[in-house]
Design a protein that fits this description.
2 strands; 65% helix; single chain; mainly alpha; 6 helices; two-stranded antiparallel ribbon; elongated
């Protein structure tokens, strides 16, 4: 199948498919006599794996590691679990950071009168640099 059909079936854009190929997440596509990329069901399966991994927030580097583990039938499941655990730890760290950002912004917003006056404590704190440490 051509890249357009592969894109529709995988839920990825043709641009992303070409990109994944260029960074070696996807093996180079077979080419038609006229030079068009051709994909088979194995490629679609790999693209679906990549998409699901990205949907779970794995970085491209992590997706590459997951692909290597997926394709290695001799791998230990402990290796996959360790990668997943590391990703969960990173997600938890980001969640804590986002919670702190939300709380800071909530405090700033609560100190703003939000009326017709130009005085704005949110802008003052942002300008002073004392809000976001």
């Amino acid at each position: 199948m051509n890249i357009g059909l592969a894109a529709r079936q995988s839920g990825l854009s043709a641009k992303m498919i070409r990109y994944y190929e260029s960074i070696n997440l996807l093996k180079p596509a077979h080419r038609s006599d006229s030079g068009y990329r051709l994909y088979d069901h194995e490629d679609l399966h790999t693209l679906a794996f990549i998409k699901r991994s990205r949907d779970l927030g794995f970085s491209l580097e992590e997706v590459g590691k997951l692909l290597e583990l997926w394709q290695d039938r001799q791998r230990a499941s402990a290796d996959v679990k360790a990668l997943a655990r590391q990703h969960i730890d990173e997600l938890n760290h980001k969640i804590r950071e986002l919670g702190q950002l939300r709380d800071t912004l909530q405090d700033l917003m609560e100190n703003c009168q939000g009326d017709h006056r130009p005085d704005c404590p949110i802008l003052k704190k942002l300008a002073s640099g004392s809000c976001c440490n």
